[in-house]
Amino acid sequence: MSRDLLRRRAAAVPDGLSAATPLVVARAEGSELVDPEGRRYIDLASGIGAMNLGHGHPDLLAAAREQLERFTHVAAQVATYEGYVRLAEELGRLYPTAPGAARPATKTVLLSSGAEAVENAIKIARVATGREWIVAFANSFHGRTYAAMTATGKTKNSRFPFMRSTSPSVAHLPYPYPYRPLVEGSEEELVALHVRLFEQALDTHLAPEHVAAVIAEPVQGEGGFVVPPRSFFQRIKEVCERHGILFIADEVQTGFARTGRMFAMEHFGVTPDLLVTSKSLGGGFPLGAVTARAELFDALGKGSLGATFGGNPVACATALATIRVIERDGICARAERVGARTVERFRAMAERHASIGDVRGLGAMVAMELVADRRTKAPAAALYERVQAEAFRRGVVLVRAGLYSNVLRVLAPLTIPDALLETALDRIDEAIAAAS
Ligand SMILES: Cc1ncc(COP(=O)(O)O)c(C=O)c1O
Question: Which of 93, 272, 305, 359 shows a CA-CA span of 20 to 30 A to 179?
Answer without folding.
Answer: 272
